[in-house]
């Protein structure tokens, strides 16, 4: 009998701090097959459930500025700044066609090159 392949799981981060940007899933909506079950949110506070002792989080849903209380961290994942800025960091600056760049990279370049288009900002 063939052995079942092992699936890899993403390790969960067990603690978040105020201001962290996370992806979270409304697990009930997800398992019921309802749309709109995954959101981006900002951590507002952490608190411990009185009965279970589990740390839960209150979030602000960024797309609608809606408060979400008591979110289980098992259904949250961090959204690191490095991932959000990857398109800008890897933009093909030598490409003559700005269509090859993502809209975020183009917006950043336009903002920084608006006054003087002959120089780029200093590299960090």
Average pLDDT rating:
82
DSSP strand count: 5
Overall domain count: 2
User: How would you sum up the major sheet?
Assistant: 5 strands, antiparallel
Beta-strand residue fraction = 25-35%
The low-confidence parts are none
Order of helices and strands: EHEEEEHHH
Keywords: Plasmid
Features:
4 helices; five-stranded antiparallel beta sheet; alpha+beta; 124 residues
Describe the overall structure.
The protein has 124 residues and is α+β, with helices and mostly antiparallel strands. It folds into two domains: 59 residues; 32 residues, no CATH class. It has a five-stranded antiparallel β-sheet. Strand 3 and strand 4 form a beta hairpin.
Topology:
Blueprint: E1 21-25, H1 27-31, E2 38-48, E3 55-61, E4 66-71, E5 76-78, H2 81-84, H3 86-89, H4 103-113
Antiparallel strand pairs: 1-2, 1-5, 2-3, 3-4
Sum this structure up briefly:
The chain has 124 residues and is of the alpha+beta class. The protein has helices at residues 27-31, 81-84, 86-89, 103-113, and strands at residues 21-25, 38-48, 55-61, 66-71, 76-78.
